[in-house]
């Protein structure tokens, strides 16, 4: 197998974290590299490692410099030690790894009280609300990362025919489960928070599960399919819980 | 062993050292704003360093002790009294049954910590007892402390019980010299490293950051400190994708006014990062009140790490010193 050289750029994020940059932009291939490196780091943590956060094209590694200092007895800085460790891990990464991912189906009740901006999105693109629902539920989306709130997925892959700018003035409160569009991204609110995304529907599923492990319905790397449901099916889901 | 909350104060929450390991799920770290004060308070009562304490903000909080309890108060000076008499700070204190501990307003710093021997009994959620208000988890039912709440404590360690016995017999004439580790002044030089997008700011902004003072505004909380001063701007506009951020990250939103991310920050952010406060200065930063003045000073990563190591060694030495004071003198 030919050795594939991966461009890696490591930057400090202060004295207790660093960012391992694995490419630019939003790209499923770079995402795969992020996922591979995350898995390698999980299986081979270094002494002083705290945790990592994957993003679109990089991972942030959090560490305790004091633990590294007392365990290494080296004249190098903790930043240099962790940088070199992460560089080695990147070089160990296997290319052409067989993809394995989870497909998660998300039931969504579109429009009405659950999707107050569905009509706006339809009008914005001169299409019917049925068209918007059809296009949104036919896209297969990839969860690149979780952030903003617990379990909130940053997804790519939505059909750009329904890409819509955020609201000029954010809403003060958005209900958990609300499915929104912001530019080319689609996402699902996991907690009641303020937010500026165009809300087109709501899922009865809980995205944040604080008493489960992992504590979220979705994880980075999952593929998402949205399935339209009626308001009565939405109620049935809620009552099943 | 319990205490009853007679007055909650402005914002009093249960916090430990923070909720680590779940940031990849979007779960914030939370935890003490001033982690050095929290850790030292725990050490003073014989708890594990990362045990949960009460974090009291700016003013308030009155507690009624329903049993004899070993506690320690650290952080800012809130003119605290026990049954009307000034309470000693930064050392172990034996509180007698039916005593009333009262915090007034902060005359130094902005956050005080109370550690109770045995720690606060509350469920551990994702490895931590810290309160995460927005997600309504951790602490007491995921909320701030309210009037009428009853706090109960865990089983004190053998070491805590031994401390309790010995302190009951002799008085203490020492306290921790916190000036070695935290600066409670409201006019501070905060040391920073250049941020990941520092070079993308125009030359004038790069210069201004280190030359001009910035004021902590009233819109500052556990999530972030919003500063006010000369606005900082990028040389050319540029779109950053969301990525990991951390405690002390200095972000510049479109207004040009810096925001320093604090204990309750989100896990990821998409604003350009002009700087990063060094870990050793975060507790001092967390003790600043609104209207406080900050001047930023650049240090190297080696200097930042050395300062952090020096403070960690100080905390390590406190443990040994307390043992000597209590058991050998």
Q: Can you give me a brief rundown of this structure?
A:
Chain A has 241 residues and is α+β, with helices and mostly antiparallel strands.
Q: What is this structure's SSE topology?
A:
The complex is a heterodimer of chains A (241) and B (329).
Chain A: E1 9-12, E2 17-21, H1 28-43, E3 49-54, E4 58-63, H2 65-72, H3 78-92, E5 103-110, H4 118-124, H5 129-138, E6 140-146, E7 153-156, E8 171-174, E9 178-182, E10 185-188, E11 193-195, E12 198-202, E13 223-228, H6 231-240
Parallel strand pairs in A: 5-13
Antiparallel strand pairs in A: 1-2, 2-4, 3-4, 5-12, 6-7, 6-13, 8-11, 9-10, 9-12
Chain B: E1 2-7, E2 12-15, H1 35-45, E3 53-57, E4 62-65, E5 69-77, E6 81-82, E7 85-86, E8 92-95, E9 100-102, E10 108-116, E11 150-152, H2 158-169, E12 187-194, H3 203-211, E13 214-216, E14 224-228, E15 243-244, E16 249-251, E17 259-261, E18 268-269, E19 273-277, H4 282-286, E20 293-298, H5 301-328
Parallel strand pairs in B: 12-20
Antiparallel strand pairs in B: 1-4, 1-11, 2-3, 3-10, 4-9, 5-8, 5-10, 6-7, 6-9, 12-19, 13-14, 13-20, 14-17, 15-18, 16-17, 16-19
Helix pairs in contact in B: 1-5
Structural commentary:
The complex is a heterodimer of chains A (241) and B (329). By secondary structure, chain A is α+β, with helices and mostly antiparallel strands. Chain A has six helices and 13 strands. In chain A, the strands form three sheets. In chain A, strands 7-6-13-5-12-9-10 form a seven-stranded mixed β-sheet. Chain B is an alpha+beta fold. Chain B folds into two domains: 181 residues, no CATH class; 112 residues, Beta Barrel (Cyclophilin). Chain B is 20% helix and 27% strand. Chain B is globular. The mean pLDDT of chain B is 95. At the A-B interface, strand 3, strand 4 and helix 2 of A face strand 15, strand 19 and helix 5 of B. Chain B: This is Antagonist of KipI. Chain B: Keywords: ATP-binding, Hydrolase, Nucleotide-binding. Chain B: Pfam families: CT_A_B. Chain B: One of its GO terms (molecular function) is hydrolase activity.
């Amino acid at each position: 197998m030919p050795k594939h050289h991966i461009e890696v750029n490591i930057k400090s994020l202060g004295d207790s974290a660093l960012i391992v940059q694995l490419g630019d932009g939003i790209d499923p291939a770079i995402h795969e590299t992020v996922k591979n490196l995350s898995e390698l780091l999980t299986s081979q943590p270094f002494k002083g490692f705290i945790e990592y956060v994957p993003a679109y094209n990089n991972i942030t590694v959090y560490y305790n410099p004091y633990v590294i200092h007392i365990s290494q007895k080296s004249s190098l800085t903790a930043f240099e030690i962790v940088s070199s460790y992460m560089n080695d891990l990147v070089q160990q990464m296997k290319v052409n790894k067989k993809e394995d991912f989870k497909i998660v189906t998300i039931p969504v009740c579109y429009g009405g009280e659950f999707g107050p901006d569905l009509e706006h999105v339809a009008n914005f693109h001169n299409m019917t609300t049925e068209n918007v629902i059809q296009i949104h539920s036919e896209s297969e989306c990839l969860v690149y990362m979780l952030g903003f709130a617990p379990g909130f997925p940053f997804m790519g892959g939505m059909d750009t025919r329904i890409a819509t700018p955020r609201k000029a003035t954010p809403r003060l409160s958005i209900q958990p489960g609300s499915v929104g569009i912001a530019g080319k991204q689609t996402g699902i609110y996991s907690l009641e928070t303020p937010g500026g995304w165009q809300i087109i529907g709501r899922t009865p599923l809980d995205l944040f599960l604080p008493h489960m492990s992992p504590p979220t319905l979705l994880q980075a790397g999952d593929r998402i399919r949205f399935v339209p449901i009626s308001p009565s099916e939405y109620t049935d889901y809620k009552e099943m819980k | 062993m319990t205490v009853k909350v007679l007055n909650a104060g402005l914002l009093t929450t249960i916090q430990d050292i923070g909720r680590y390991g779940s940031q990849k799920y979007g779960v914030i770290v939370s935890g003490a704003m001033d982690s050095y004060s929290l850790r030292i308070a725990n050490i003073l009562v014989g708890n594990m360093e990362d045990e949960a304490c009460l974090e009291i903000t700016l003013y308030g909080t009155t507690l009624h002790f329903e049993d004899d309890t070993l506690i320690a108060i650290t952080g800012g000076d809130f003119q605290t009294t026990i049954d009307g008499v000034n309470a000693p700070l930064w050392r172990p204190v034996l509180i007698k049954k039916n005593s009333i501990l009262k915090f007034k307003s902060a005359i130094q710093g902005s956050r005080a910590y109370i550690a109770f021997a045995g720690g606060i009994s509350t469920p551990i959620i994702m490895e931590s007892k810290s309160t995460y208000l927005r997600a309504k988890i951790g602490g007491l039912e995921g909320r701030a402390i309210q009037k009428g709440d009853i706090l109960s404590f865990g089983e004190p360690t053998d070491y805590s019980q031994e401390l309790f016995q010995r302190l009951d017999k002799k008085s203490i004439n020492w306290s921790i010299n916190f000036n070695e580790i935290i600066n409670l002044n409201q006019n501070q030089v905060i040391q920073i490293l250049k941020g990941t997008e520092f070079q993308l700011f125009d030359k004038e902004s790069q210069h201004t950051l280190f030359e001009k003072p910035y004021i902590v505004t009233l819109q500052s909380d556990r999530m972030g400190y919003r500063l006010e001063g000369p606005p900082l701007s990028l040389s050319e506009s540029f779109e950053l994708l969301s990525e990991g951020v951390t405690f002390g990250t200095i972000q510049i939103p479109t207004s040009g006014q810096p925001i320093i991310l604090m204990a309750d920050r989100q896990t990821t952010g998409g604003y350009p990062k002009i700087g990063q406060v060094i870990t050793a200065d975060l507790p001092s930063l967390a003790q600043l009140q609104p209207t406080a003045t900050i001047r930023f000073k650049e240090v190297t990563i080696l200097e930042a790490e050395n300062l952090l190591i020096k403070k960690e060694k100080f905390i390590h030495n406190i443990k040994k010193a307390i043992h000597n004071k209590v058991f050998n003198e």
